[in-house]
Structure formats: structure tokens, C-alpha cells
Amino acid sequence: MSRPPQRRTPRRIVDGVLFLDKPVGISSNNALQKARWLLSAAKGGHTGTLDPMASGLLPLTFGEATKFSQTLLDADKAYDATVLLGVTTTTADAEGEVLACCPVDVSDAAIEAAIATLRGEIEQVPPMYSALKHHGKALYEYAREGIEIPREPRRVTIYRFELLERDGDSLKVRVECSKGTYVRTLASDLGALLGCGAHLTALRRTKIGPFGLDVSLPLADFEAVPAEERDGRLAPVDALLVHLPVLQLDAAQARSLTHGQPVQGCSGEPGCMVRAYEGEHFLGVATYGEEGELIPTRLVATGNR
């Protein structure tokens, strides 16, 4: 006998942000889809990928909050990582195939000196095993086919690169960096400077912008929350915008803004962005124009609820 088709749980409108602590072993998209399923959410996104071998902070956005994901895509980030000297791999991390093994004969002082040269504004060549696109195709797809694509170096800023602990050939390091930084490339470059090669064996993202792991929830813990209580674990739609100043509008101003019209009579520096509210209702993000008017930039559909 054939089984009756299983009914899918209907998706629903869910608005908010889940500061997830992603576990090792799953992709960022798999973590997102799991959280969407747990919430039965109609729409969701994430704010920058973590490789499957990496764990740590992965803010997920749902519903109207997805409109503000770019805020964290552009944010600075912090990581704790482990680097193994003496071994290079195809991917510059533990997921790749070993290319070479070299004896390691470097002092702590030499390591510290090499790390120091990788601080500040530096140029990084993005790895072939990355999601960057070339003619609409991810670089890792070319890499799997054995095709090497020339990549232009990109300027990134390493605000902090610190050796925390050394255990033989294994180094525990802490990195604070600008967007677009590949920590595995940093590990590979460190190994090249030391003349022995290196690759990344563990990575944990500890901070994105102003948010740290202290606000995060492990995926297993979120799954353990009763279904009817999961919405309560989400931060509000405007949670990613804490860096923007707040502007309160009266009813008439709010009505103009939510209808996509510039709001006159405001005072602010041209180009400055603000979070606009009517009382406790978040309306969206607006930007001051050349004449001091407030121009709608990105509004939320929930603003009038």
C-alpha cells in the first residue's frame, strides 16, 4: 500500500533576528533552513557565511529583518582559530587534501614577528575554494574541476592578530578583521612567511559588529525550545541597527514616511541615516537629504501594526 502524502507545515510570517551559535559540521544555509523549519518561517536569510568546519555567531534574519542583513555583511568580525604549522592543504583548512608536509623549526619570536607583519591594512588573494563568483560560477566549482582562476588581491584590515597559545606545531590565535577577510588565507600566509606552510584546523566566530557570542543561542538549544515559545527567542526586526541614531516622528510625519514621501522639517546632516519610529513602532531606515528633509531608505511592512 502506498503511504498518504505528508502535509507540509504551512509557512507563516515571522519577523525578527536569531543570533545563532552555529555548530561545526553544517553549512550556514543548512543552519538557516533548520531554523526556518523550526519557526515555520516563510522568509529567512543570513548575514554572512561560515564554512561547515567553523562554528560561532551566525545571525539569521526572518521576514522584514532580512531587509537589514547587509548591515552585518559589511561589519567587522572577530575569530578564535587554530593553525597547524608544517602542513599545507588545497583549501588552506582541514577540509582540503594535504599538499605538502614540512619540518617546523621556528621560534616563538619568529612566529610573533611574522604575525606582526600581517596586522594592519594588507592585501589578500581570495582562495580558490571560496564562494566568490567568476562569470556567474563560484570559484570552488572551478577548483573542483582543477581549474585555477586568476584572482586580484583585495585590501583588508587586520585590527588584531594575536598568538594566544602554542602547543608544539599548533597555534591558537585571535583575529579581529574587516569584512572580506579569509582567516584561512591568513593562516596560509603565516605559514608561507615562516617557510614551513600552515593551514587552519579550527575556526570560531566570536563577534560580528557590536554582537558577541553572549547573545547567541546554540542550534540544539533553539530546537529544544517548545515550538510556541520560539518566536520569543528572536530579537526584534531593528536589532541589527543599534549603531544608527533613533528619530521619533509624529503621526503626520510617520504617515508621510511610510507612504514613501520625504518628511520636511527635520534637521540632520545630509547623508546621515537614522532609525525612524512612531512611538514604539519601528518604521524603517531613513536618510537626511541635502535640504534637511528625511528620505525613506528602507521601510518595514510591519511599521503600521
UniProtKB/TrEMBL annotation:
NCBIfam families: TruB. Residues 245-300 form the tRNA pseudouridine synthase II TruB subfamily 1 C-terminal domain. It is an enzyme of class 5 (isomerase). One of its GO terms (biological process) is mRNA pseudouridine synthesis. Responsible for synthesis of pseudouridine from uracil-55 in the psi GC loop of transfer RNAs. It comes from Zoogloea ramigera. It catalyses: uridine(55) in tRNA = pseudouridine(55) in tRNA. Residues 36-183 form the Pseudouridine synthase II N-terminal domain. Its EC number is 5.4.99.25. The lineage of its organism: Bacteria, Pseudomonadati, Pseudomonadota, Betaproteobacteria, Rhodocyclales. It comes from the Bacteria. Residues 184-241 form the tRNA pseudouridylate synthase B C-terminal domain. Gene3D superfamilies: Pseudouridine synthase, PUA domain. This is tRNA pseudouridine synthase B. Keywords: Isomerase, tRNA processing. Pfam families: TruB-C_2, TruB_C_2, TruB_N. Belongs to the pseudouridine synthase TruB family. Type 1 subfamily. The active site is at 51 (nucleophile). GO terms for molecular function: RNA binding; tRNA pseudouridine(55) synthase activity. CDD domains: PseudoU_synth_EcTruB, PUA_TruB_bacterial. Coiled coil: none annotated.
